[in-house]
Design goal:
Blueprint lengths: L6 E9 L5 H11 L3 E4 L4 E9 L2 E9 L7 H9 L2 E7 L3 H18 L1 H14 L17 H4 L29 E6 L12 H11 L3 E3 L5 H27 L12 E2 L2 H6 L1 H22 L13
Parallel strand pairs: 1-4, 1-5, 5-6, 6-7, 7-8
Antiparallel strand pairs: 2-3, 3-4
Pfam families: Ras
Keywords: GTP-binding, Nucleotide-binding
GO biological process, one term: signal transduction
Length: about 300
């Protein structure tokens, strides 16, 4: 039985033009019996999601793909969770998704946003690393480059070229969503593997949603977002209290059955990721033996 007092969270949904932001919100309102609230300046949609014995009141807000106003930047700063969408039939839309990811980092956590943005650029850098990349004008060189940069060996979170995700990125609960997943695989301009790789670089769950199958995919998206926010909050509480217990931040994914059955590249990538995660879990579970120092008495 869900609790009577709902947990209230503000959610920002971002993405390029025509990726389906408003469609997703309207579908969520239909599924969760939501409502619209307006103060005369901007409108929000409120949905109530019952999950894991609790009731969550999510306030959903979307923005036009025309630049952020001061009010919208404030909404990003105070939000508890972020959904970034792209269209699998539009390869440019995933570049916009990367751009919005960077913008949220800049607004939400400016202390480390420069490092994370530079790190994300390095994941898809061209063979001309000295060419600057505009924040508002995504470049297509990331998808056309055939050369691979050799990263420096340093894995420091302050090292922009570090092959591992910068420390603290999982403190901001993101969810990456790919829309129009009901199309045939031949109609995709963005592959499932492209989406999975971007979600891995963002250290967030990846889900594919469809307007034709909203009851399953849209409902799954918001429940996965709730899990992500809750997990992130627990991680922050333990970090602030210096709790030594481990909190796993699992990068999940939900793919349509048609994709999981027919996309061999996606299945191979997922299997590779599962193996890496298994090795990582085994290493983290190994007992840490303290090093003993030998003192020489003269």
């Amino acid at each position: 039985m869900a609790t009577t007092v709902p947990i209230q969270w503000n959610i920002v949904i971002m993405g390029g033009s025509l990726v389906g932001k408003n469609t997703l919100v309207k579908q969520a309102v239909d599924i969760f019996d939501g409502r619209m609230e307006s103060n005369g300046i901007k409108s929000k949609y409120i949905i109530n999601v019952e999950f894991s014995g609790r009731m969550y009141e999510l306030s959903l807000e979307t923005f036009f793909d025309t630049g952020l106003t001061t009010s919208e930047q404030k909404s990003i700063q105070t939000a508890e969770g972020y959904v970034i969408l792209y269209d699998v039939t539009n390869k440019f839309s995933i570049e916009r998704a990367k751009m919005y990811y960077k913008k949220i980092l800049q607004i939400k956590d400016p202390t480390h946003s420069d490092v994370r943005s530079q790190w994300l650029n390095n994941q898809s850098s061209s063979n001309n690393p000295s060419t600057p990349t505009s924040m508002d004008s995504p470049t297509s060189s990331a998808t056309t480059s055939s050369s691979v940069q050799t990263p420096r060996k340093s894995n420091s979170p302050r090292d922009p070229s570090s092959p591992t995700i910068p420390q603290g990125t999982s403190k901001i609960p993101f969810l990456l969503g790919a829309t129009k997943c009901d199309v045939d695989l031949s109609e995709r301009q963005v592959t499932v593997v492209d989406g999975l790789k971007l979600a891995d670089s963002m250290n967030c769950p990846y889900l594919e949603v469809s307007g034709l199958k909203k009851q399953n995919t849209v409902e799954d998206l918001f429940k996965e977002l709730i899990k992500t926010i809750d997990r992130t909050k627990k991680t922050l509480v333990r970090a602030n209290t210096q709790d030594s217990r481990k909190t796993s931040f699992k990068v999940g994914n939900l793919l349509p059955k048609s994709v999981s059955e027919n996309d061999n590249d996606a299945n191979n990538y997922l299997e590779m990721r599962r193996r890496k995660q298994t090795i990582k879990n085994r290493e983290s579970d190994m007992p840490q033996h303290p090093t003993t120092s030998t003192t020489t008495h003269l």
